[in-house]
């Protein structure tokens, strides 16, 4: 319980973020006609979804859901996994004689 395994807040937060991103994708796909994205407000067409999304945000003031990052330092499971992988990489660096990786992992 002290490691946060019973805390499902992280899972709920991730689910909400995924649902928001899925909603963004469905909005973009609804405006796609064959291989082109067509703006319903000004009828401009775009080949790439990134440029189309930027057009909607700048020219028509659309707000897409953005995912906010959780504070990784407050998640003990995340910290444990990060430190475990760092230890494994450092041990491997010593075995392989990789001085640059040893120094990089030390900082």
UniProtKB/TrEMBL annotation:
GO molecular function, one term: zinc ion binding
Protein name: C2H2-type domain-containing protein
UniProt-listed InterPro entries: Znf_C2H2_type
Domain C2H2-type: 37-60
Organism: Magallana gigas
Keywords from the UniProt entry: Metal-binding, Zinc, Zinc-finger
